[in-house]
Design goal:
Layout (H helix, E strand, L loop, with lengths): L3 E4 L3 H10 L9 E4 L18 E7 L12 E6 L14 H4 L2 E7 L11 E4 L4 H8 L6 E6 L5 E7 L1
Antiparallel strand pairs: 1-8, 2-3, 3-4, 5-6, 5-7, 7-8
Bound molecules: zinc ion.
C-alpha cells in the first residue's frame, strides 16, 4: 500500500476566511446555519445540523495552468481542528459519491487513472492513482456538483 495523506484547506486560509469574511474570489462569504450536508474543508468532517458554516469560493491551488479551477466550499464558521491523519480517508469523502482526479508533475490530468467512486470504496482507486509513477498528486471532488473536497498526496 502506498502511504498517503488527505490534505485539507490550510489553517491560514480558513482563518483568513473567518476573520475577513471575504473569499478567494473577493466575494463576501455567505454565513448560514447548516441545514443539509455541509462538508468542512478544514476538519474534513460534515457540519452538524445547527452549526454555523461559511460558503465561499476557494482557490485551492494545483492543478495550476490549463486545469486550474476555483471551487465553492463550506468551512466551519468557528474554529475547528485541521484534519491531520496518515492513511485515513476523511468522513466527507467516505459518505458520498466522489470524483478522483490524478495529475502529473506538469499539472496535467491523467484521464486514464481517475474515476468516480462510492466514497466507502475509494481506497482502491486512491491506491491505483498514487501507485502510478506518473501521478504527482490527486484531488477528490464531489461527483455530482464537482466541488473540491481535498487533495491526496503520498506520505
Ligand atoms: Zn471544520
Amino acid at each position: 500500500m502506498v502511504p498517503f495523506r488527505c490534505v485539507p484547506m490550510g489553517s491560514a486560509a480558513a482563518r483568513r476566511f473567518r476573520e475577513t469574511g471575504i473569499d478567494d474570489g473577493g466575494n463576501h462569504l455567505h454565513r448560514q446555519v447548516a441545514d443539509h450536508p455541509s462538508p468542512c474543508r478544514h476538519c474534513l468532517a460534515e457540519a452538524v445540523r445547527g452549526e454555523a458554516v461559511l460558503l465561499g469560493s476557494y482557490h485551492f491551488g494545483r492543478p495550476n495552468g490549463i486545469y486550474w479551477t476555483p471551487s465553492p466550499i463550506w468551512v466551519h464558521a468557528e474554529g475547528c481542528g485541521r484534519f491531520e491523519h496518515l492513511d485515513r480517508v476523511p468522513e466527507i469523502v467516505r459518505n458520498r459519491l466522489v470524483s478522483v482526479r490524478a495529475y502529473d508533475a506538469r499539472d496535467f490530468c491523467l484521464y486514464d487513472l481517475g474515476d468516480v467512486s462510492d466514497g466507502r470504496d475509494v481506497d482502491a482507486l486512491i491506491q491505483r492513482c498514487l501507485g502510478d509513477s506518473r501521478t504527482d498528486f490527486v484531488n477528490i471532488h464531489t461527483a455530482r456538483p464537482g466541488c473540491f473536497l481535498c487533495r491526496v498526496e503520498r506520505a
